Automatic annotation (TrEMBL):
Keyword Iron-sulfur: yes
Classification of source organism: Bacteria, Bacillati, Actinomycetota, Actinomycetes, Pseudonocardiales
Superkingdom assignment: Bacteria
Domain Globin intervals: 19-148
Key words of the record: 2Fe-2S, Heme, Iron, Iron-sulfur, Metal-binding, NAD, NADP, Oxygen transport, Transport
CDD domains, per database record: Mb-like_oxidoreductase (cd19753), O2ase_reductase_like (cd06187)
FAD-binding FR-type domain residues: 153-253
Stored PANTHER family: NADH OXIDOREDUCTASE HCR (PTHR47354), PROTEIN RFBI (PTHR47354:SF5)
Protein name as annotated: nitric oxide dioxygenase
Length: 386
């Protein structure tokens, strides 16, 4: 993959581009394998700066610190500079909630370069070393600039005001922030709960912002999940949460006059529910909107009643339930969301929102592309790779 020259020039990245290219080309020769590189990086980092250990999860082995893996992901995906700067600015802004300060970037950079040198052996030439030093300075500088440019708080304190276990493994949780929290329908936030300090997880408000100042989340406890199980089983009114700045822009899919296809799997329906609520309230509507809402079985389609009621009031909206396991009574469509949706056609002339688990997002985007949709019509949030 090559760097996009026009984008580089447009965003003032011209000077750094050759270094990014050299660094990117060196990845294979250095032999960076996350399984060995990540522990080596942390050992080096905490050797230089033991004080930084307190910023990370309590038990790094069982609670999987994400930083090391994320860093490997970033340094092995250095292409697409046009999207890089915006992404890094948001990441830097978000890092304020981890208590990361300007001075931490230098020691992390030092640890990264030493770990890379140890890993690379003979492939770590002077030229490669110089390229990585510039590359890290660029990544860190963009993140620090993003952090400085945000006048808002690093996080909001919030109190749980409602916790209802609507299924064995699904809870509807309402929280009220101490200070007003401004977000757009379809965005997500990260939260930290008292049950699992320092483990931040993404959750999507299931309602459009309103004057009550409350956020509502639908949380599904997943198999071995620490935070999600903690929230579903143990969150209580009165618990104090921290909420990170709002992120994502699924609302870019809403273009007046254009058709909108929204595909939500499981709790991935939450941002779609918020978008639909916002559209009903505020107008600026697409020509027509279709929601495909999928879950394992009929009972797990917890948001269906509400969505259906909205569609009865609004002729521009259709809601199509899809289940994976054949139901006892006929009714919903049966199959994988990706297959059912693309069975209706290519959807080439509309904007598409895809929201759900990592596996669902990957499968759905792949199926849409095979059916003829292009990537720039498709809107989705980043998701955890592991
Ligand atoms: C943008 C975004 C929005 C999100 N919105 C919501 C939401 O509104 N409601 C909600 O309940 N969750 C939502 N999630 C998922 C949530 O952030 C957590 O990833 C999830 O709750 C698991 O966290 P955990 O600590 O319980 O599990 P972890 O301890 O992080 O993971 C335990 C194991 O489960 C696997 N795993 C992680 N996530 C999933 C998954 N989704 N499906 C299957 N296996 C998985 C991991 O690979 C790991 O092996 C969202 C995620 C993203 C990226
Ligand atoms: C170029 C520099 C950096 C990059 C690209 C980077 C990238 C990332 C990413 C992508 C995440 C995961 C975010 C999430 O899951 O929500 C993360 C988490 C984190 N980062 Fe960074 N980061 C950088 C610098 C730093 C620095 C300087 C520190 C300070 C020590 C730091 C500390 C953390 C912490 C504490 C976490 C969360 C805890 C965890 O789960 O590991 N990062 N980083
Ligand atoms: C929590 C943070 C992140 C998550 C969960 C994440 C997730 C993903 C996933 C799932 C992909 C597609 C699959 C792959 O090629 O591996 C991807 C691709 C990519 N990511 Fe990230 N990412 C994160 C952070 C970043 C950051 C901080 C950057 C850059 C600064 C970045 C740059 C890229 C690029 C350029 C690609 C495209 C690579 C290609 O097409 O080959 N990512 N990311």
């Amino acid at each position: 993959m090559s760097l996009d020259d026009a984008a580089v020039r447009a965003s003032g990245l011209e000077e750094i581009a050759p270094h990014l290219q050299t660094a990117q080309r060196s990845v294979a020769a250095l032999g960076i394998d996350p399984e060995t590189f990540v522990p080596r990086f942390y050992r080096t980092l905490f050797g230089y700066a033991p004080g930084l250990r307190s910023l990370f999860p309590l038990a790094m082995e069982t609670q999987h610190s994400r930083f090391g893996r994320a860093l490997v992901h970033v340094i092995t995906h250095l292409d697409e500079p046009s999207t890089l700067i915006g992404f890094l600015a948001q990441l830097g802004r978000d890092h304020r909630k981890f208590d990361v300060r300007d001075e931490h970037y230098a020691v992390v950079g030092q640890a990264l370069l030493v770990a890379l040198a140890d890993t690379g052996g003979a492939a770590w030439t002077d030229e490669v070393a110089r390229a990585w030093a510039h590359t890290y300075a660029f990544l860190a500088g963009s993140m620090q600039a993003g952090a400085r440019s945000d006048p808002g708080p690093a996080w909001w304190g919030a109190t749980v005001v409602g916790h209802e276990r609507v299924e064995r493994d699904l809870a509807v949780v309402r929280v009220r922030t101490d200070e007003p929290f401004v977000y757009r329908a379809g965005q997500y936030v990260t939260v930290e709960t008292p049950q699992h300090p320092r483990l931040w997880r993404a959750l999507s408000p299931a309602v459009a912002p309103d004057r009550s100042g409350e956020l509502e989340f639908h949380v599904r406890a997943i198999g071995y999940g620490s935070v999600s199980r903690g929230i579903v089983a143990s969150a209580r009114p009165g618990d104090r949460w921290r909420i990170g700045p709002p992120m994502g822009a699924l609302d870019r899919a809403v273009v007046p006059g254009r058709e909108l296809l929204m595909i939500g799997g499981g709790t991935g329906i939450s941002p779609i529910r918020a978008l639909v609520e916002q559209l009903e309230r505020a107008g600026g509507r697409p020509e027509r909107a279709v929601v495909f809402y999928g879950a394992r079985d009929w009972d797990s389609l917890h948001a269906l009643d509400g969505l259906r009621r909205t569609s009865y009031r609004n002729p521009w909206l259709d809601v199509v339930p899809v289940v994976e396991e054949p139901p006892a009574v006929p009714g919903p469509l049966v199959g994988r969301l990706a297959d059912v949706v693309t069975g209706f056609g290519s959807w080439a002339d509309c904007e598409v929102v895809v929201s759900g688990s990592p596996a669902m997002i990957t499968a759905t985007i792949r199926a849409l592309r095979v059916a003829g949709a292009s990537l720039d019509q498709i809107h989705y949030d980043p998701f955890v790779t592991d």
